[in-house]
From TrEMBL:
Cofactor(s) essential for the protein: pyridoxal 5'-phosphate
PANTHER family per record: GLUTAMATE-1-SEMIALDEHYDE 2,1-AMINOMUTASE (PTHR43713), GLUTAMATE-1-SEMIALDEHYDE 2,1-AMINOMUTASE 1, CHLOROPLASTIC-RELATED (PTHR43713:SF3)
Modified-residue entries (N6-(pyridoxal phosphate)lysine), positions: K272
Catalytic activity: (S)-4-amino-5-oxopentanoate = 5-aminolevulinate
Name of protein: Glutamate-1-semialdehyde 2,1-aminomutase
Family: Belongs to the class-III pyridoxal-phosphate-dependent aminotransferase family. HemL subfamily.
Signal peptide range: none
Pathway(s) where this gene product acts: Porphyrin-containing compound metabolism; protoporphyrin-IX biosynthesis; 5-aminolevulinate from L-glutamyl-tRNA(Glu): step 2/2
Amino acid sequence: MATKDISREKSAQLFEKAKNYFPGGVNSPVRAFKSVYGSPLFIERGDGSRLWDADNNEFIDFCCSWGPLILGHNNPEIREAVQAQLGKGLSFGAPTRLENELADLILTHNKYIEKIRFVSSGTEAVMSAIRLARGYTNRSKIVKFEGCYHGHSDSLLVKAGSGLVTFGETSSAGVPKAFADETIVIALNDKEALEKVFSDFKDQIATVIIEGIPANNGLLIQDKEYIQFLRKITKDNGALLIFDEVITGFRLGFEGAAKYYDIQPDILTYGKIIGGGMPVGAYGASSEIMSNISPDGNVYQAGTLSGNPVAMAAGIAALRILSQPGFYEKLEQTTQAFVNEIQSFITEKQLDVKIFTVGSIFWFAFATSERIQRADQIDPNSMLYYKKMHRELLNRGIYFGPSGYEVGFISAAHTEADLATALAAIKDSLLIAFEA
Ligand SMILES: *Cc1c(COP(=O)(O)O)cnc(C)c1O
């Protein structure tokens, strides 16, 4: 276990080198540690709940590759399935039995979709689902919510402008204003805003997209009644409802947030866990809606490496384990017990922080006692507490995602002992974060 004055020399050297190769030294921005102290740890290997960095420091990992690793690192069944496939070739650009197998595993355990299409990332799944919704409805406007992340396609890199209902403003340079004009952004948990959108843009809205349970900007658990309202208003107006379940799919169970709310969305998107750690995304819907996808229909979508056999093999091995009875119940109980212990410590010490949880996801909300359901309820200044806690946790061998807006994940590889170790470190770190 790492001690207080661990060396991060090798990681620091690797990061200096990486800056010569990549913008910001990374291949995905949040990895750059811009929101926390220090520079990124370069990871050498992972096993079970543990990570080892280039300086051979050991960490208990609660980032879990941002969600995919629900079985922890280097799971033996996934590893063996991948190794077995490696001997047969890496890609064929032709169908394989493995695609059928993964689809069968998913579709027999998920009553919300009848047909599925595999892609290679969450971004690609969502981008394709939006195109499908537009093609199906023959409308072009989409509605998204402030505080939901749906990957980095142009239509979705849009944030709210000012006012209750406005056209979005691009949240990235390089996104044409004309794209942002097709995306309307509103606050979560606001029925009035939804009603206004559908009256202002009558018969123009192709789809409303929401993260099943928003978990990319804090954990913003919505009320069932609000989601039911969202379902009804979309249906009444001939717009499709997309649940982006790239995080919640296979995290809350095979039927994800759709089952959690008991709501039938029109299109669902998946990613992260579905590939067992390999790059896989997917979108699914009723057979009728999916029949609009090429080659059956006129909505084009393709991929050279889609349904990649090695990735499929990893996904099959992972989902076989996840489909065993009691898997999710146990993981959720473990998480709930862990979170309860943290919460009682917080209460005992009267710390100004609240911990939100669903399934095996948890999130610390600092400087609030409110139930947070909208992005604008999160005070950016409260992130300083997370930043301090993050530093203390790293020094105690606990790896959390390098941003206070990111949630933490518990995997089936986290043992009681791991969680007891983490709990002690979290208690110490929280106290230090609140020191003046
Ligand atoms: C991670 C995520 C995405 C993007 O997936 P990538 O694989 O990173 O492209 C999209 N939507 C949600 C809800 C996500 O959590």
